[in-house]
Structure formats: structure tokens, C-alpha cells
Design a protein that fits this description.
mainly alpha
């Protein structure tokens, strides 16, 4: 695979930034893993794990890490700028339009429909990201994933408590498998 140029990085993340609102991680994954093949599924998951441990939005962290990996500080700046420049301009325009027309006619219902679509997209991306982990370790990863889904999705337990409970269990399982 050829290393992407700073221009290619900017344009790729500009496309990602224009692809969605507040949930572009699925688009970033599709672009980085499936279309451009700049990262493998495992590379993406590991990079995302790193980005989730850093302060700030995951996709912003991802843009900086990916840009840095391929083109150093210039790449990081290109990816970050590409990711945020168009959405910031668009948000300013939409804020003005919402202030004028937000309560008119079918606009509130349309916004609710967009929220449902975004939830479905997030669920589909989660399944795509879980696939390589579940294929590699179905008997250890599967129960952890199922427990997290039941605890947070069905029982509505607070995510921090679920993560604090399941993380040590999953680390212990991985450690024992590695022995």
C-alpha cells in the first residue's frame, strides 16, 4: 500500500467530516479500512482503543493519530482540518436556519427520524468492529460482549460501572489465554 499524501489525508477526512453529524466514526472506518485500506480492521480497532483513552472526541483523536502516522505533524493538521472545517461552517448555517424554522411543520419529526437512523448506523458499525474480535476469540470475547450489551442495553446499568467491572475480567481472560 502506498503512503497517502497530505492532500489525500485532508480530502479523505473532509469527506468523512461531510458524511454525517455527530457520528462520523462509521464513515471514518469505512474510508480507512474498506475503501482506502490505509488501516486493517485490527489497526483500526487498536487505534480507536487508543483514541478512546485520550481526552476529547474519538474521531478527532483518530484524525490526529492517523495523520501523524502517515505524514507527521503536517498529516495530523491536514486530517484534523479536513475533519472539522466544513462541519463547523455547516453548523453555523444550520444554527441560523434552526433558529428561524426549527418549530415549523414537519421539521421536528424529521429530526427524530434522523436520530433513529444515526442509532442504526452506530449499531451496524459496532457489529462490524466486533466481528474480528469475536472471530479471533469467540469463547472469551463473546461472553464479555454479551454481558456488556445486557448490562448497558437491557438493564440500563451505568456504562462506567459496567466498564470498570468487565475490563478487569477481560484483561484477566486475555492474560490467562496468553500463558
Amino acid at each position: 500500500m502506498k503512503t497517502p499524501s497530505v492532500r489525500a489525508l485532508f480530502l479523505a477526512f473532509l469527506t468523512v467530516g461531510l458524511s454525517g453529524f455527530g457520528g462520523v466514526l462509521p464513515f471514518a472506518r469505512r474510508m480507512l479500512v474498506e475503501r482506502r485500506q490505509w488501516l486493517t480492521e485490527t489497526d483500526f480497532n487498536e487505534t480507536l482503543a487508543l483514541c478512546q483513552s485520550l481526552p476529547g472526541p474519538n474521531i478527532v483523536n483518530m484524525s490526529v493519530v492517523v495523520g501523524s502516522r502517515f505524514a507527521g505533524p503536517k498529516g495530523a493538521l491536514a486530517c484534523l482540518t479536513g475533519l472539522v472545517v466544513a462541519p463547523v461552517a455547516l453548523v453555523l448555517v444550520l444554527a441560523d436556519l434552526w433558529g428561524r424554522f426549527g418549530a415549523v411543520g414537519h421539521v421536528p419529526g424529521a429530526i427524530r427520524g434522523l436520530a433513529a437512523a444515526a442509532a442504526g448506523l452506530a449499531a451496524a458499525t459496532t457489529l462490524k468492529m466486533a466481528r474480528p474480535i469475536l472471530i479471533q476469540s469467540p469463547f472469551s470475547a463473546g461472553p464479555i460482549v454479551a454481558a456488556a450489551f445486557v448490562a448497558v442495553g437491557l438493564l440500563r446499568l451505568p456504562l462506567p460501572w459496567v466498564a470498570l467491572t468487565l475490563a478487569p475480567v477481560s484483561v484477566l481472560i486475555a492474560w490467562r489465554r496468553g500463558r
